[in-house]
């Protein structure tokens, strides 16, 4: 997608053919800055510190992290060390483990001297596949938005509510939840997006609003607590969110607060869709409450980052001094609250049968 009219991705291989560049998302929306990753430690830090974040982008970064590690040590031990190290950086998004498994499978049985080239080829493919997968999610999700638009008075915008950032900044390009939005907007469908600010890190206010604005999509930032009221008053036509891990039974782990939006949507008959690529499905789990929930510590709750009038970016304390805080970063929305999934293969109900209808190769043989 574009920033200031210039097409960009969130991660790319540098001209030297081996180092990797990312947009540093901890600096957005105030400063657009890129960072070069030259070692596996750089890649791990980028994931842990959330310079890159969002399930698919974490996976793509980890894949390149393996390449950087293998340049230094292409032995079996070096590969295992890199994979375990990268996997430990964030626990909830399954795309991290998925991408590392892909890298392991690509490299493991190859002679040492060809491992680095093979790893870079697979990492590049993971990135390119993510772009195409997200584009396809948009193709299928756009139809849902068009169906709603067809039932509204001509020219009245379709109001979409989204949570966190499941946009192109969370993937390599297009986004998951935002891909249908971009594609409907580009096709001339009138739409407007309510963007949950998404405390504590404000991925909605800082990232989703930034990218929607960059693409010219009309949007309004709302505080996290406003969604229920807006749904009660008929202001929301559809919710579309992303996911960090979805079980084979359709339970969805996503950014903390997603569950509350799903409850409000159910109470008000607002369709609640989850957009996801195949790499976010954990086929080994059938209970969402078995998904590990990242605890990010209290600092993010007790302080906030913002821009001063002079342009400097500062962090300020916002809480009563001495009060402790709790910061679970994700919650689980049970499948029964999800109207449906939007995947690269089409839409389906949030049920085991629904998922298997799109991914029959995952069913019993
Ligand atoms: O903690 P984050 O910013 O990595 O959380 C991101 C989300 O929860 C996204 O909604 C999810 O990863 C889907 S991204 C396409």
Number of helices: 11
Q: In percent terms, what proportion of residues is strand?
A: 15-25%
Overall structural class, as computed from helix and strand content, comes to: alpha/beta
What is the percent of helical residues?
25-40%
User: Stretches where pLDDT falls below 50 for ≥5 residues?
Assistant: none
Helices and strands, in order, run as EEEEEHHHHHEHEHEHEEEHEEHEEEEEH
Strand order of the largest sheet: 8-7-6-9-12-17-18
Shape: globular
What gyration radius follows from the Cα positions, in whole Å?
A: 20 Å
Total strands: 18
Average of pLDDT? 97
Bound ligands, each once: 5-S-methyl-1-O-phosphono-5-thio-D-ribulose
Q: Explain this structure to me?
A:
39% of the residues lie in helices and 19% in strands. The protein has 365 residues and is α/β, with parallel strands linked by helices. A hairpin with a 2-residue loop joins strand 1 (2-3) and strand 2 (6-7). The radius of gyration is 20 Å and the shape is globular. The model has no long low-confidence stretch (mean pLDDT 97). Bound molecules: 5-S-methyl-1-O-phosphono-5-thio-D-ribulose. 5-S-methyl-1-O-phosphono-5-thio-D-ribulose binds at residues 53-56, 93, 164, 166, 170-171, 176, 203, 242-244, 254-255, 329.
Summarize it.
With 365 residues, this protein is of the alpha/beta class.
